[in-house]
């Protein structure tokens, strides 16, 4: 059920001044308050409302049609969506709301959601209006409104905070909001054995001081759980013990308390099974294992996994329900036997082009994508 192209093309050509042409479509560009402002400045506007599966796609090559979506929802047709566009744009026109300029305190006007509103009576079923709004101090009221706007955005649409123009006071407001910390359930596991040393050769790699320090600091910064370091090599374990002793019990820690806290998260293990056992004992339940990789599974090769790779958001959801161990490979990546132990495989940090990130750089990116700053 697709609208034919010829009748619609004729209809569009019959419009003397079509102006900007929007097509209401769920797969289009999101319709935002900023887009509404842009459209409000246009002299003319044409809105195409499809039905069922939409219109013949060739029309998008013939006319400057902009597919536009009012939300991640599918409707039978575009008429309802077009009404939303018309109303959002109309209320921005001077005089539409009885004044020349519409308010700038509304949702999305400053990158945040709007603060809550109240009216009479002062007490409604036992709930009073916030006292600050009754005091007549306009400066305090403005401050309260801004803080509530930040809090509402954090609660309802935390994704907006990534682009909102936040002030130092806004950040302080965010810091004061109690947060669930999925990071406490997430632990890095840096695997040095078994890892791939060549295309078909697996073995053990050497740990490096930089990896230990930086991944420990990442774990501390994102309030994560213990950072497990797996190596069966006794000389490497001795090196690791010397590093940790220097920074947690020796002169390093006394001169740098932050680094001591970060390195205090490191848990040496001789095998992945030992690391899993340690995390199981700590949480009371076996963690889910997630493997990371620098490359997307290649074409033409036999793959052990056929399901879609995990997204960072899916890993975060797992963290909200229980412990998760994110396995990081050294050398040329995790060996097949490690991958087989894992419950999921995470998408590569970068899979459309060249990727030669260090493991510590990848760890920082993964921590941020999984946990972010507002969770």
Provide a descriptive summary of the structure in words.
The protein is 38% helix and 15% strand. It is built from 14 helices and 13 strands. A six-stranded parallel β-sheet has the order 10-9-6-12-11-13, with helices on both faces. It has a three-stranded parallel β-sheet with strand order 2-1-3. Helix 2 (33-40) packs across helix 4 (79-90) and helix 5 crosses helix 6.
Helical residue percent band: 25-40%
| Fraction in beta strands | 5-15%
Query: Please, how many helices?
Result: 14
Give me the side-by-side strand order of the main sheet. 10-9-6-12-11-13
Secondary structure tally: strands: 13
What is the average of the pLDDT values? 92
Cα-atom radius of gyration: 28 Å
The gross shape turns out to be: flat
Structural class label:
alpha/beta
Please provide the ordered H/E string of secondary-structure elements: HEHEHEHEEHHEEEHEHHHEHEHEHEH
| Major sheet details | 6 strands, parallel
Q: Between the first and last Cα atoms, what is the distance in angstroms?
A: 43 Å
Low-confidence stretches: none
